[in-house]
Each structure stands twice: as structure tokens, then as C-alpha cells.
Amino acid sequence: MEILNQIVDLFFSNICFICKEKLTEKKYICEKCEKNLVMIDEGKCFCCGENTSKNGICESCKKELFFDGFISVFEFDKVIQNLIHCYKYEEFKKIGKYLGEILAEKLSRYSFISDVDYILPVPLHHIKKRERGFNQARILGKSVSKKLQIPLKNSAVKRKKYTKSQTKLCKEEREKNVGNAFVIKDISLVKNKRLLIVDDVFTTGSTMKSIASVLKNNGAEKVYASSIVRA
Ligand SMILES: [Zn+2]
Ligand SMILES: [Zn+2]
To answer: What's the CA-to-centroid distance between 128 and ligand 2, angstroms?
Structure first.
């Protein structure tokens, strides 16, 4: 246990990730910055904000996106954007752990989570991974997996197509861009399984929709989706 605490100490940075102020407590971000993070209202659809929602998603979004549930945590703003867009691997490992734990805590309040067999991070194309050096969704997924004690499977789905950055594309262009971008790599991790996809940002949902449809077409029993941020 003592060794474990020492490891925790090693990973603990004593400055706030956001404002870089010195921290007095063993935390990741300071209280002031934590208060500035805007949580999404619960009890409504996490995709569209409609009132009716079971498993965090309304009926029309469920049909549109092929998700059986969808949970997100924060509204998109400058503060969370700075956290998510951290390109330093060592730093994001800590940020991702912190944000993943928050997502896991939120997920644990929904009963469907106890049925989930595997957590699947949104895969990055190997060229993109080379550019950035790491897959943020994988780091987030690892944290969620650890906290919820659900195995993380990085090799169930693969991104076969190198997709353009989605940021400047509209909804239709995004769907076209990521359509057929994913393939199943290991069917035994998909068929008759209940899966939870993890990503950093949910914008129009086109990326996770594309994965969900591939999973469903290959016999997945349930596909749930989750993200740290909803833009
Ligand atoms: Zn701060
Ligand atoms: Zn909805």
C-alpha cells in the first residue's frame, strides 16, 4: 500500500492543470477551476437536450445514432477545451486519468453499466497516432475501465480509413468523412456483447455512430456511448 501511495505521489502534480496555480491539496485542478467546469444537465438526453431520456438518450437520438445509451459530462467551453487538447503525453496521462474518473463516476449511476462486457476506446488511425503520439480516447478508456472494473479492449475495432480532421466539417460532411472508417478486428469481442464506446468529445456523434453501426451489424447486443465533453 505504501508503495502504491508513493506511485500516486509521483503522478500527482502540485500545480493546477488549468490555471497552473500551486495546489495545496492532492488534487488535479484547483477548486476555482473546478467550479468553472460546466456540467451538462442530467435527466435530459445527453445528445440533444430533449426532456425524455432513458439511459441518457431520447428515442429519436437512439434511432439516429444506434446507441442504447449515451452519457457525457461537461459542456464544451474554453476551460475544458484546454484540458482535452493537451498534446503532451505525460501531462495528458494525468488529465485523462482525472477526467476518466469523473466519467466513470457518472456512468456508475446508470444501471446499464453493470451489464457492460467491454469498454472500447475510439481508435485512432496509425498515421494520426504517429502524428500525435498517443490516443486520448484510449487513455480516458483506461481510467474508466480501472474505476468501473470493466475490461478495456483496444483491439476490437480498427480505423481503416485515414479521416480528415472533423472540426471544419458540417454534420453531413462528418458522416461522409467517417462512414465505413471502422472495421471489426476481433469478432469474439463484439458478437453478443454489450459494449461501451469512450471518446473525448461528442460533437455531432458521427464518429461513435459509425462505430456503433459496425458493432451492431456484427452482432453486438447493446452499444452504449460516452464522452467527456459534449460540444
Ligand atoms: Zn486552477
Ligand atoms: Zn436526443
So the answer is: 31
Alpha helices (H) along 56-148: 59-65, 78-84, 89-107, 126-132, 136-148
Short-list 199, 163, 202, 203, CA closest to 180: 163
Q: What does the alpha-carbon distance between residue 147 and residue 97 come to, in Å, rounded to a whole number?
A: 10
Length of the chain: 231
Distance 219 CA to ligand 2 centre (A): 24
Burial class (CB in 10 A: 0-12, 13-18, 19+), 98: middle
The pTM assigned to this predicted structure is: 0.88
Report how far ligand 1's centroid is from the alpha carbon of 47 (Å): 28
Pinpoint the residues of the chain covered by CATH 3.40.50.2020. Answer: 37-230
Provide the pLDDT for residue 4.
57
pLDDT in tens, 32-46: 988 889 999 888 999
| pLDDT above 70 (res 138) | yes
CATH of domain 37-230: 3.40.50.2020
Q: Is the pLDDT of residue 89 over 90?
A: no
Report the separation in Å between the CA atom of 30 and the middle of ligand 2, taken as the mean of its atom positions: 33
State the pLDDT at residue 119: 98
Helix axes 136-148, 89-107, angle to 10 degrees: 40
Q: What residues does the ion ligand 2 have nearby, CB within 5 Å?
A: 45, 47-48, 50, 58, 61
Distance CA 29, CA 13 (A): 9
| Ligand with an atom nearest the CA of residue 28 | 1
